Amino acid sequence: MMNDEGGKTLPNSAIKNFFFPKLNRKVIIRIALVGIIAFIFFKYILIPFRISGHSMDPTYRNGDVNFCFTFRYLLSRPKAFDVVTVRLSGRHVMLLKRIIATEGQTVEFRKGQVLVNGNILREPYVAGRFSWDLPVRTVKKGHVYVVGDNRNVPIETHDFGQTPINRIIGAPLW
Amino acid sequence: MVKPQHLLAATGITAAAIIAFFIFFQSDTAKIKKCFSTLSAQAEKSGDEHDLAAAVTARKIESLFAETVRIEIPSYDIDQTLPHSEISSHVLYARSQYRDISLKFYDFQIEFPEEGAARVTLTGILKATTRAGERVEETHEAECELKKVEDTWLLTGVKGVDVLEK
């Protein structure tokens, strides 16, 4: 039997063989290999995740789907303005935050403005600001200071602060 | 030559043996995870519940704890040791403040520092709606201490971990 497609014909058997090949040894090994590689790749290298919450609004919205690229900091260290994923006890639940300061720098919030080393940080990604106030503190060795982009909430309801670099799993792919 | 029916029978017997092994010989790790899944199931609430049902649930949750429990949550300035007899009333009060509750645990890391003791690091996600209709969503890492009493793992301590330090 043949299928008509724009004047050309495709044999049904070719399509069938492509999508449903005969299960011989070679095909089974190929399927198993693809499955194993895909499992490793999406489990350890490019971890799919869905954003739950509004902490990174408007840059990343609630319900968005993305991938955490775990090799992002294989050859470099996390730096200011990077958006990173921070692990809790494992990789099933992670926090998505932006680094605003690195080790040795001072961080302060004054009327909603972030001051790093005493200088106002320009943050074009922040849409609105509550009047956050937090006394000056120094980022500890081996730590980074992370905050969400959504500052349009009271300071008490937003999770932010310094965290060890070894808790950073990677960065979102886009 | 192996006959297909023999192969099928052997596969069936092996599968039955594996299932039986997991049912009757639960590892300590599985028992600990079961303890938390029971806690999660019992903590759950959807809509109003009868006082008696709430009391029974509180008792079931209480049975997961040892004679004393140390609760440490630095971010909320909580550090207290509760006797077993008080757990039920605390659970009852806490659950009564919410219209619906969902408590889930993920990413278990289980260690056995000594015989009959376990340390579990996990991530807990609490989603709830207060009586006033306010949505609450809290995600925390916690370190839990458990001890084995007559083949049952009981919680002796819960400590909140500050992943982000303001």
Features:
heterodimer; A: alpha+beta; Umud Fragment, subunit A; 2 domains; four-stranded antiparallel sheet; disordered N terminus; B: alpha+beta; 7 strands; globular
* Portion in strands of chain B: 35-45%
In terms of quaternary structure, what is this? heterodimer
How many extended strands of chain A?
A: 13
Largest sheet of chain B: 7 strands, mixed
Molecular shape of chain A: elongated
Radius of gyration of chain B: 20 Å
Average pLDDT of chain B works out at: 91
- The CA-CA distance between the termini of chain A, in Å, is 46 Å
Q: How do the strands line up in the largest sheet of chain A?
A: 3-4-13-5-6-11-12
- Derived from helix and strand composition plus strand pairing, the structural class of chain A reads alpha+beta
Estimated share of beta-strand residues of chain A: 35-45%
Plain-language structure description:
By secondary structure, chain A is of the alpha+beta class. Chain A folds into two domains: 2-44, no CATH class; 51-172, Ribbon (Umud Fragment, subunit A). Chain A contains two helices and 13 strands; from the N terminus they run ββααβββββββββββ. Chain A has helices at 12-19, 25-45, and strands at 2-5, 8-11, 46-50, 65-69, 83-87, 94-102, 106-110, 113-116, 119-120, 134-138, 143-147, 161-164, 168-172. The longest helix of chain A is centred in the first third of the chain and has 21 residues, at 25-45. In chain A, 24% of the residues are buried. Mean pLDDT of chain A is 91; it is low at 1-5. Chain B is of the alpha+beta class. Chain B has a single domain (28-161), classed as Nuclear Transport Factor 2, Chain: A (Roll), CATH 3.10.450.50. In chain B, 37% of the residues lie in helices and 44% in strands. Chain B has helices spanning 4-24, 28-43, 51-62, 84-96, and strands at 45-46, 65-73, 78-83, 98-114, 117-130, 135-149, 152-161. A seven-stranded mixed sheet of chain B has the order 1-4-5-6-7-2-3. In chain B, helix 2 packs antiparallel against helix 3 (51-62) and helix 3 (51-62) packs across helix 4 (84-96). Chain B is globular, with a radius of gyration of 20 Å. The mean pLDDT of chain B is 91. Chains A and B meet through strand 12 of A and strand 4, strand 5 and strand 6 of B.
